[in-house]
Amino acid sequence: MVYFISGLGADERVFQFLELPGIPVQHIKWLKPEKYEKLGYYAARLISLIDQREEVILVGLSFGGLVCQEIARHITVKKAIIISSIKSREEMDWKIRLAAFGKIYNLVPAEILKKIALLTANFFFSIENEKDAAFLKKIIEDTDSGFVKWALNEILQWQPPNEQPQVVHIHGTNDQIFPFRKLHPPVLKVENGGHFMIADKPKIVSKLLLDEILRT
């Protein structure tokens, strides 16, 4: 079974444009995080949503890629695939590291963070048309503000496990959130793909994803 984990606060709608014929898919839905819960403990709780009696392939998008790697610390997976995500703190842009160091985001109310996200999303997600802009806006509006603030903190403070699972990394060369130039190879690149390429370049992403799912 292939389990999909969406991005920060998003849901399975972000995967709706993928074409994976014949592939059984389950979408892991977010649980409400406990107060001050660390990402590793949160990921461990998500394991209850996974049937380990069969082969497991994890696919994590953006923040879901971090969660995917944390889950793979605890259970045996056939493959872990991350899309538009990172494998280490070294792959974070310096601006993100600066925000993590200063922790200024902790002073900003969750609702304000959400409004900022709405104002800046088109740039950071490399949105190119009104349809994608409206789709992304709807996803952000439907996202729980408290979850966003918790997840943002966990992204900025994330420390990868010492024994990192091997992951397949799919990433766009025009990603404004996690710049391609910062990534450690190997990476399967999508030319001119932005952080929202899961929706605006679904055919290319689908092909790379399907090849990896079917590869033994």
Describe the protein's architecture and organization.
The chain contains 8 helices and 6 strands; from the N terminus they run ββαβαβααααββαα. It has helices at residues 39-46, 63-71, 94-102, 110-124, 130-142, 145-156, 197-200, 202-214; strands at residues 2-5, 25-27, 57-61, 79-83, 167-172, 188-190. Strands 2-1-3-4-5-6 form a 6-stranded parallel sheet. Helix 1 (39-46) packs across helix 2, helix 4 runs antiparallel to helix 5 and helix 4 (110-124) crosses helix 6 (145-156). The protein is globular.
Which descriptors would you attach to this protein?
216 residues, alpha/beta, Rossmann fold, 6-stranded parallel sheet, 8 helices, 6 strands, 38% helix, AB_hydrolase_fold, hydrolase, Alpha/beta hydrolase, AB_hydrolase_1
> How large is the share of residues in beta strands?
5-15%
Query: How many angstroms does the end-to-end distance come to?
Result: 14 Å
What structural class do the secondary elements suggest? alpha/beta
Uncertain ranges:
none
User: How much helix is in the residues?
Assistant: 25-40%
Question: CATH H level: which superfamily?
Answer: Alpha/Beta hydrolase fold, catalytic domain
Q: Main beta sheet: strand number and arrangement?
A: 6 strands, parallel
CATH topology: Rossmann fold
Q: Any idea of the CATH class?
A: Alpha Beta
User: How large, in whole angstroms, is the Cα Rg?
Assistant: 16 Å
Topology readout:
Blueprint lengths: L1 E4 L19 E3 L11 H8 L10 E5 L1 H9 L7 E5 L10 H9 L7 H15 L5 H13 L2 H12 L10 E6 L15 E3 L6 H4 L1 H13 L2
Parallel strand pairs: 1-2, 1-3, 3-4, 4-5, 5-6
